[in-house]
Known about the structure:
Blueprint: H1 16-20, H2 29-58, H3 77-82, H4 99-104, H5 121-132, H6 142-145, H7 153-163, H8 186-197, H9 208-219, H10 226-233, H11 240-250, H12 253-265, H13 286-298, H14 303-312, H15 330-333, H16 342-358, H17 377-388, E1 390-391, H18 406-439, H19 441-454, E2 463-464, E3 467-468, H20 471-482, H21 490-499, H22 506-515, H23 518-522, H24 524-536, H25 541-565, H26 575-584, H27 595-601, H28 604-623, E4 635-636, E5 644-646, E6 654-657, H29 681-688, H30 696-709, H31 730-742, H32 747-755, H33 758-761, H34 768-773, E7 786-787, H35 790-801, H36 835-839, H37 858-866, H38 868-882, H39 892-905, H40 911-923, H41 941-950, H42 953-956, E8 957-958
Antiparallel strand pairs: 1-4, 2-3, 5-6, 7-8
Helix pairs in contact: 2-5, 8-31, 9-10, 9-11, 12-13, 14-29, 16-17, 18-27, 18-28, 19-20, 19-25, 24-25, 24-26, 25-26, 30-31, 30-32, 35-38, 38-39, 38-41, 39-40
Amino acid sequence: MHTDRVPIRRRTYHSAFLAVGIFSLLLSVETLATEANAAEDRKEAFFESKIRPLLVEHCVDCHGPDDQSGELRLDRKVHFQRGGGSGALINSGNADASRLVKAIGYQDNSLQMPPDYKLAEDEIELFRKWVREGAHWPDEEASDADETETMSFADQIIAQRESHWAFQPISMPQLPEFEGAEGLTPIDRFVRDRLRNADLSPNPKADRETLIRRAYFTLIGLPPTYEEIQAFVNDDAADAFEKLVDRLLDNPHYGERWARHWLDIARYGDTKGYLAGNQETRYPFAFTFRDYVIDAFNSDKPYDQFIIEQIAADRLNLEGDDRQSLAAMGFLTVGRRFMNRRHDIIDDQIDVVTRGFLGLSVSCARCHDHKYDPIPTADYYSLYGVFNSSEEPGELPLLGEPKSTPQYEEFLKAQAEKQKEVDVWVEERRVATEDELRSRIADYLVYFAEEATQGKNAKQKYQGKRGPLRRAAVRRWQKFLTTPNESSGPVWDLLRAMAAIPADQFAEQLQSLSQVDADAKQSPALKRLLGQLSSSQPQTLVEAAQSIGDQFEAVYQQWKDAKKADKNLQQLEEPGDEALRQILWSATTPTTLNRDQMISHLDQSERNRYNQLKNQVNGVEVTHPGAPSRGMVMVDKAKAIEPVIFRRGVPGNRGDRVPRRFLQVLEDVDGGQPFNDGSGRLELAHAIANPDNPLTARVIVNRLWQHHFGDGLVRTSSDFGTRGDPPTHPQLLDYLAADFMNGGWSIKQMQRRIMLTETWQQSSDLREHAATVDPENRLLWHMPRKRLEFEALRDRLLVAAGRLDDRIGGRSVMIHEDATRRGLYAYIDREDLPGLLANFDVPSPDASRAQRTKTTVPQQSLYLMNSQFVIDQAKALAKRSAESILENSGDETTERIRRMYRHALARDPNDNELKHAADFVTSTPTVPDDHQEPASTPLNTWEQLAQVLLLSNEFAFVD
C-alpha cells in the first residue's frame, strides 16, 4: 500500500493581485467532467420537458411523419438537423437570426409559424433560450429512430425493475472485514475497503482549526468566531468534536443552511412568472413554505413525514399549532405559473415531486414513453390525474388564529381600504355595463340569430354594429336563450320559436306566429313585439332579432329620458312599454349583473385596471408586517378526474384512459393498486415515503452526502435512472439508506454519523500519487476543498463587517439592494432574477435543481472588487477593527491588524502577514476612517487591507 507524504498546508498570501484572481482558478478534471455531465442532463431535461411538447403540439402535424410541409420534419433529430427546403433552421453564430426563431417570432411577413396563430411570448422565449444554448436535441437510438422495438415496454419495465441497481430492495449489507477494521465506523469501513482495493490510503485527520471551520460552514453556513475556534482548539476532551457537532445541529441557524439546499430542489420563487393583463404575479405567502422548511430541519422532522406534508398536508386533519405544517404544500405551489396553462403547471408539479423525492425524470414521459427509464407515458398521465384532481382554494387557509395586536388591526384597516377601492370601482363598472348591455340588446340578439342561422361551428367574431361585444355577455345570452328553464316567458318563447323556423320558410311561418295572439292577450310585452314584427315584416331571423332588439332599446331610452325628467318615476305609462322595461331590468335577464357576473364581463382594458386594484389589495398581504400567514395549499376537487393519455402530449388528442396510481416500475411498493382516496395525493405521498420504496431513502441520503463531500455517492443526484451515474460505493449507499430508515428517518442523526467519521474529518491536502490514481476523488482519499456558495459568501462578508441581521424566518428581502439579512431570504423574482444571483450560480427557480453549477467567470471577481456592497463591508470591517483601541497604546497598529484578521478570518496573522500589513497601512498616506466623501473616493489603506482580506482565497474557500 502506498503511503504518500503529506505536504505542508499551502500558505495564504494576501495581495491585491491575489484578490483580483481568487475566482480565476483552473478547474480540475473532476469538476470539468462533472459539470459537463450535469450540463448535458439539464439540456436533455429542458428539451424533453419544454421544447419537445411545443414541437409536438404546434409543429409536428404539418412537419411530421404524415406531412412534411416545406420539406421539413420536426419529429426526429436527424430531420431537424437536415432542415427544410429553405435551408437550415439554426444559425449557430447568431441565434436571433435563425429561421426557426424568426418564424415563430413573426419577424418576417413571409415566414410566420404556426401560420394560423402566434405562440405565447413565454413559449417563444423557451425556443430562443434553446437555440441560444445550442439547440440540444438528445441522441436517438436506432430502435427509436426506426420505430421498432425488440421488447415491449411492459417487458422493459419488468426487466429494469429486476436488473437496475436503484430499483432493488434496500437491505443492510455486511460490513467489510479487513486488517485494522476494528474501531472504524461502518462508514469508514466501506470507504477504507475501496481505498485498500485501489492500493490507496486516506489523508490524515485535519487539524482542529480546519475541522471547526468545516463543521460551521457545513451545518450552519456561517463562520466560527475567533473565540469559538480558540475554545475548541484548547478543549482537550476526547469528545470535543462530537459535542461541537451536537451544538451546531441544535443551532437555529442550522435550519437556514439546510433549508437553502432544499429550496433549490423545490424551485422556490417569490413570484409566478409572467402573466398577461396586469395580473398579480407576487406570491404573498411563499415565505411561509421557506419558514416551514427551516423549522422542519431545526426540529429534525422525520423525513417520511416531511415528504407526506409537502404533498398532502391538507389531508392530515391538522389542528391548532399543527396547522403550521399546511405551509409545507408550497413545495407544489411555489413554481412558475406558465401563463396559467394548467397542463404546464401540472407537468411542473410532477417533475418536482418525482425528481425531488425519487430521483426520476418522469416529466420526460409527457409526449412519449421515457427513452431510457422504465416510465411509460401511461405513468405520467396517472400522476397527471392525481394533480389534476387537486386545486388551489380561492382563499388560502390561515396557519393559526391571528392575534388581535395593533399591527394586525392596522393590517385589517389597510386591507379594507384597498378592498373598498376595488368594490367602489366594480360597482361603478356594474352600473355602467348594465346600461351598455340594455342599450345594445339588439346587437346581442342579432348575434344569437346569426349563430342560429349559420350553425355553432361557424366562426363568428364578437362584433356588433356598434362595436365589440362582451364575450361573457354573448355566452350568457346563448345559454339564456337556449335553456327554456332559465328564460321562460312568452317573449323568449317567441324568439326560440322563430329560431326553429327553416330559413327558406321564415317569412311565411312568421306570419302564422304573429296571428297567434292567445299569449299576447296575457302579455303586453309580447303584444307589443308581435305588433312590431307585423309592421316591420322581417324576412330573416336576423332581421326579426334586430326588430325586437330595436323595440327593447327604444323602451330603454324612453325610461332613461323619463327618469331625467322625474326622478321619482316608478313605471312607464303604456303597459307594453312597462312590460318590456321590467324584462330589461329583471334579475334573470342577461342585461342585469351581480358583482361576480360583472367581473366576468370585464373587457381587457377593464380587467387590466381591475387587476391593478386587486394587486394593491394583495400588496397589503405581501408587505404589511401585520398580515397573518397563510399556507399555499392544494385541496382535492369534489370529484376526482379520471385521466386519459394525451397522445404526443397534446390535450386535444385524447388516448386511452389510465388509472390514478403509482409508477409501475415501483408497483411492489403498494401492490400497483389504483388510488381511490380523493385525488390520490395522500396515497402518492405514502407510496413515496414507504420504507419498501427502493428510491426514496437512497435519494435523500445521497443528497446529504453530496452536501457534506461536494459530490454524492451517486453524482447525478436527481437522476437515479439508467442514464444516471451508478454509485461509487453501492454497499455504503445501501447501508446509509437502511440505517437512515432504521433511525426514524432522522436527517440530523445521519449527518452526525457522517461527520464523526475519519472520512469526513480527513484533510483536504492533495497527494500526487493518489491524485494520479483517482483524480476525481471518487474513492474519497481526501476531503475536497469547497468554494462557498453565494449565500454563504455574502453572509460571511456581513459577519466580518459586524452587520449581519441574523433574525430567523419571515418575508423575503431585496438582498441586491444592500439588505443585511442572510442570503437565504433573497427575494426571487422569476421575471427579474438579479444578475448578481445568476453570476454566482444561484439556480433558476423554474426547475428543480439538486446541484449548482460551479462557474468561474470575470463577473464574480469584478463584483467582489467593485460593488458598493462589498466596499461597504470593507469599510465597516476597517471601522470595526478600530473600535475601543486605546490611543497612544504604543501598539495600536498591530492590535488593529490583529482584530481585522480575527473578524475576517477568525485567526491571528502570522509574523510575515503582520509585518507586510503594518508596512502597508503605515507607509502610505491615508484619510481618516470617518471621512464623509463621495462613494467614488478611493479607499484608505485600512479599508484597502480589509478588502484584500475579504477577497482572499482563505475567505472564500473551506478546506
